[in-house]
Design goal:
Radius of gyration: 25 Å
Distance between the termini: 65 Å
Low-confidence stretches: none
Mean pLDDT: 76
Strand content: 5-15%
Helix content: 25-40%
Number of helices: 9
Strand order of the largest sheet: 1-2
Order of helices and strands: HHHEEEEHEHHHEHH
Largest sheet: 2 strands, antiparallel
Shape: elongated
Length: about 200
């Protein structure tokens, strides 16, 4: 707040309307301070860059590049000796071709939450499935419900994250029921319990 008090006009420019002359001479009230905090926090979180563990840094012009997952055309590099940042092409670029930056291999949920957009074609997108939604849709029998609760540490390990991209061998596996890859093992077992005609039949699988 002392910094904002000393540099009033740039911060007032962040508001939806220009302040009256008399407003700029009064102390900034709590509501206005909170609005400024949200506005400035949003700008930093969506536009700042990091250099490894260092940062965040606000780098003018570099944040003008659009982002598209998997289409990195340029990368930002820090030069500590010159106390500067440089944007270098990451691949050959044709004249007039748009240069894209990327925020990493992130699912659309992270892109939307952190940067305010999402990619229609995002191979790294994920879907989270809540356990309660599965149980509500499948309507387990009393016997199945009791079995699931007894083995909750294994079968209720949600929410389950479904991905499009390959996972390490120790991660999600191919579902025994639908044959789809990248299905969490706990979800695969839960679906087998729910789809089996009885718990006894599941135990014989």
């Amino acid at each position: 707040m002392p910094f904002i008090e000393r540099h009033r006009h740039p911060w007032f420019d962040c508001l939806e309307r220009a302040p009256a002359p008399e407003e700029t001479e009064r102390p900034i009230d709590e509501v206005r301070a909170y609005q400024l905090y949200l506005r400035c926090g949003s700008l930093v979180s969506s536009r700042a860059f990091h250099d490894g563990p260092n940062g965040p840094y606000m780098v003018p012009m570099a944040d003008l590049l659009n982002s598209r997952t998997g289409h990195t055309g340029a990368r930002l590099f820090a030069d500590p000796k010159k106390d500067s940042f440089f944007m270098h092409a990451a691949r050959d670029l044709a004249t007039g071709q748009e240069i894209f930056n990327t925020y990493g291999n992130l699912p659309n949920s992270d892109l939307l939450r952190k940067y305010g957009y999402w990619d229609a074609q995002n191979p790294y997108d994920t879907v989270e499935v809540e356990v309660d939604d599965i149980l509500g849709a499948m309507e387990p029998s009393p016997e199945q419900q009791e079995f699931i609760e007894e083995h909750g540490d294994l079968l209720l390990d949600g929410p389950f994250v479904l991905t499009k991209f390959p996972e390490p061998a120790e991660g999600p596996v191919e579902c025994n029921l639908c044959g789809q890859p990248n299905v969490p093992h706990a979800l695969d077992l839960l679906l087998q319990v729910l789809c089996a005609p009885s718990v006894e039949a599941f135990m014989k699988l």
